[in-house]
Amino acid sequence: MTGFHLRAISGLGVKGPACFQLETGGARLLLDLGEGPDAGMRPDITGIGSVDAILISHGHPDHIGALDLAPELGNPPVYATAPVRALTDDLRLAHAQDLPIRGTVQVAGLTVETGPCGHAPGAVWMRIGGAGGLLYTGDMSAESTLYPCELPAPAAALVFDASYGAADQPLADQMAELLALAATRPLLLPAPAGGRGLEMAIAFAAAGLPVALCPAHRHVATVLLDHPGALVPGGAGALAGMLAGTAALAGGSPAQGVMIAAKPNGDAGLAAELIARFAKSGEAEIVFTGHLATGKPAAELVASSKARFLRWNVHPRLTGIAALAASVQPRLAMAAFVEAPRAADLAAALPDLPLVQAPEMRW
Predict the structure, then answer these.
(1) What positions does the domain Metallo-beta-lactamase occupy (predicted)?
(2) For 10, what's the count of Cα atoms within 13 Å in the CB-facing half-sphere?
(3) Which end of the chain has fewer beta carbons closer than 10 Å to its terminal beta carbon, N or C?
């Protein structure tokens, strides 16, 4: 198959919502339709018109948060994996058509191959149109200790998660830093329930530290135990053991050990309640581990030294991007979800990667 056209509707040159349009063979697909992570950011779908399907890489808001715009796109069918469907409260996703975690499906006459890409429950990369087509990673992390990740096959074009630019600190080093801090005082870790929060809980529990989990995290863990194919080998056992050995976290829980609560930027959920308490009392140190979204409490708390930032990798570091490029061997590549200066750092670090700067690719 020839004659592919990819447009970055949103997600190029910025840590912004995912939305990419692919046209080939008379079919028009939308890859993700997100909102955020910074407050108020949404794709501009003006002029797109009708599409044949929306393919969802995973269930985080910056990839699904604008699905309410689907009527403006002709109300196309939505495709998502079983864990994404099971964990959503959006009826468009709950009733979506199946996208396998590993496998092949026909969408609008196109062959869509999928494989696990770490990062979050049920997250997948997609190869559309075979070796001559597009490989879209969504968000990806080969370092995940709970969600499996497999490198994809070759494709002519690649749109990949470049959220960290050229940063290359291993997750193991970040884990060690957090474990050392947790040994000195109680920690509150705001985190996404459908993401790194459960990975962190398993790591801290395995280190012998007391762990308390919010209800949102406990719910996700319970659902995932019904989807063992969405976990690494042995992941279901580790998750069940952690769940049985951790306390239930509530607003009045004592400040002790490691407390993990949604949501990640502290703007809602139990995390918001506990942040208000601990920022005032100092009973526990507040540590954010992911993107500090503009307009959310996390960024303000870190800027005012009322909280700390220590990253926990959930996106590919430089070594992972190099491995991905070697596996896919693209003729064209687009670095997504990263600001222009950090994209330039990545281009300098990987000069052989055929990066394009324009928001469109044709091949």
Answers:
(1) 16-196
(2) 24
(3) N
